[in-house]
Known about the structure:
This protein has two helices and 19 strands. With 296 residues, the chain is mainly beta. It has two domains: 24-203, Immunoglobulin-like (Sandwich); 218-294, Immunoglobulin-like, CATH 2.60.40. The strands form three sheets. Strands 1, 2, 3, 4, 5, 6, 7, 8, 9, 10, 11 and 12 form a twelve-stranded mixed beta sheet that branches. Strands 13-19-18-14-15 form a five-stranded mixed beta sheet, with no helix packed on it. The protein is globular and about 55 Å long.
Amino acid sequence: MDMKRFFFLFAVCSSLLAEAQNGKFDVRLQLKKADCAQMKLLVTVEVKAHDENSSFLMGNANFRFSYDAHLIKAPVIADQQNFTSQGENASLNYNPLSLNGSVERNANGIVSLNIIYSGSEQNATPVSTNWLPIATLQFDLVNPDEKAGTTLVWNDDKAFPVTGLSEVVLKKTTPEFDYDTYVAKASGVFENLTIKSLSSLCSGSNPDAEGELRIPEGFSPNGDGTNDKFTIANLGKLVAEVTIFDRNGTVIYESKDYQNDWDGRDRSKDLPTGTYFYSIRLSDGRKFTRSLTLSR
Length: 296
């Protein structure tokens, strides 16, 4: 290999490594529904860019998490929602989603949800800081009267095999080469799903049995009577401890028992339009840390 070609390839590899470190992705598991009459549990898998500088085009991906097969078992894809050639948002640039590689042995199960990209970079689906559902998975409830709880746990960057994805990088053109590139995206936040008690879920004492917990991605406290407060829907009997931070990490609001009453103020001062961050800890053990947009 001549030196000119060597240094060209070295520069290409260096640029790809730099792109691979440009931003992160976040994933979460959301309880969608418990159908205790049919003994089914529906869980949605979602993805987003970690922050505004991390937006990307979805390439291939493998989302892995573990579950207790004593309590739930036999996962199947109930609904394909994005990055797939099937469903309401079908794109022919992706293959159908699959659970190839999933295993269930005795008490332990691992879900492997796969995205296969088959198009060109102009057609890849963009991922922003808004949560995008990938698929809803259906599990069999082994015993809906079980008092024990369970947690669906992500295989993060410290587990093996890891959850990972590649982003599609726009085509590179040089006098000698014309090629598409795919680079690994660094992982960010992994939000597990904890169900405190399967029996309480089926009895209706858990609010998620009747309505999915919904945390807004933003609100507009401008006094027009609409969306003026940061409102967490379907809290039910749960107690929420809420802390709001600005970009510098300064606490601007906190409550040990949040009553959906934060109106975008730091004490009596209106906060400006911008991005803020919250930490929410629920009495059932779940915790959420994300960003929100305040608009005036």
